[in-house]
Design brief:
396 residues, FAD/NAD(P)-binding domain, D-Amino Acid Oxidase, Chain A, domain 2, 2 domains, 8-stranded mixed β-sheet, 31% strand
Length: 396
């Protein structure tokens, strides 16, 4: 059997779902191909999700236009009103951003992966001209006038455009023979959630250390915090092997009791994700566009991986929908416009996150002194601070 669509989106994450929803709401015929999901993976509880995202203004704007933001469980979304960044050493540098100084209502919003995906799933069920297809792709043929995706069961989907939103190990990217630069950071992102004795005040805190990596505590609703610790492999394994209560005690000391005594949220749990830099040599190929982690993977120290993905979706949908009448959705020139539109933002984020990781990983006293002076210098220059936070929020 063979089916047809204008756009075929391949991917089961939030970025792929947002792309499929945006194209469908724009009036295009869309097929969303998702792999089979095990019941255990699909189930969700009332506990706090270990995986959270700091969504910026661009992400919120896109989700609002899709009527997804309004469908989120607002009681589980926390606004980030300020960010406090500290260096290391005897005289650590300090850099503070706040929403008031940035002239905005919030720097970002902390949203759980489950909350985001549930809202997207609900919207997809009511999307016009959208078909959900469950299966595994085994072949991709790119032709002059179409792309054909063949599934494991022998069926196929013909589309003018295939959108690869299938993650860092992208099958779509591999089928297009797109080369990439890869660098393992030798780190894992350890994530866990905690109760805090004192109110966090909507402040996200981050500590850069040369020996232990980057520690971030992000505000959750109420007196709760979410940890993202980009730790060297050996340290990450020891953190995971120890009781979560021991990790809570370590964070209580690291934060200087700023949040009082930390305690693990029940049920106690911690997970880890490997950290790497993945830089594909292109994000477009004949009849194919890559978005999200398929197009770029960056270090999470700035918390912008998901934001880059949503910015990809916004640009791709805007350019495809606004194309000339004589061009189809997968036209070479249309996709070239998308590649150019995203080139600068992706490069800047890759350059910044990779450069900061290298800078703060250096365990040399002169380098430590230099970066602490740099943090203090930036903190004393309001114009530069405003420019940095404007860029981080996704604004021009």
């Amino acid at each position: 059997m063979q089916s047809q669509a204008t756009v075929c989106v391949i991917g089961n994450g939030a970025v792929g779902k947002a792309a499929a929803l945006a194209f469908a709401q724009a009036g295009l015929d869309v097929a969303l191909l998702q792999p089979p999901v095990h019941a255990a993976a699909a189930a969700g509880g009332a506990d706090w999700d270990l995986r959270v995202y700091a969504l910026n203004q661009v992400a919120r704007s896109l989700l609002s236009s899709l009527r997804v933001w309004q469908a989120l469980d607002a009681s589980r979304v926390a606004a980030v009103d300020a960010m406090d960044v500290k260096g290391d050493g005897a005289q650590p540098g300090n850099l503070v951003f706040d929403a008031y100084g940035a002239r905005t209502n919030a720097l970002a919003w902390i949203v759980e992966d489950r909350n985001l995906n549930q809202a997207l799933d609900a919207a997809l069920r009511f999307a016009p001209s959208l078909r959900m297809v469950t299966g595994s792709a085994v072949a991709l043929r790119q032709q002059s006038d179409r792309a054909v995706v063949t599934l494991a069961d022998g069926t196929s989907i013909e589309a003018a455009l295939v959108v690869g939103a299938d993650g860092a190990e992208s099958w779509v990217r591999g089928q297009c023979d797109i080369g990439l630069d890869y660098r393992s950071y030798g780190q894992q992102a350890v994530v866990a959630n905690f109760e805090c004795e004192k109110p966090h005040g909507g402040v996200a805190c981050q500590w850069f250390t040369s020996s232990d990596g980057v520690v971030a505590l992000l505000p959750l609703p109420g007196q709760r915090l979410s940890l993202v610790w980009s730790a060297p492999e050996a340290l990450a394994q020891s953190l995971l092997a120890a009781p979560v209560a021991q990790l809570a005690e370590r964070l209580t000391v690291l934060s200087g009791h700023r949040f009082g005594q930390l305690k693990p949220l029940q049920p106690e749990a911690a997970r880890a994700f490997p950290l790497r830099l993945v830089r594909p040599h292109a994000i477009v190929a004949p009849r194919v566009a890559l978005v999200g982690d398929a197009a770029h993977v960056v270090h999470p120290l700035a918390g912008h991986g998901m934001n880059l993905g949503f910015a990809d979706v916004e640009a791709l949908v805007r350019i495809v929908v606004g194309r000339e009448a004589h061009r189809d959705a997968g036209d070479e020139r249309v996709l070239a416009r998308f590649g150019r539109a995203r080139k600068e933002d992706i490069f800047l984020m890759q350059f910044a996150t990779d450069g900061l990781e290298r800078l703060f990983a250096a365990d040399l006293e002169p380098v430590r002194l230099l970066r602490n002076v740099g943090l203090n210098l930036v903190n004393s220059l309001p114009v530069l601070k405003r420019a940095l936070i404007t860029q981080a929020m996704g604004k021009r």
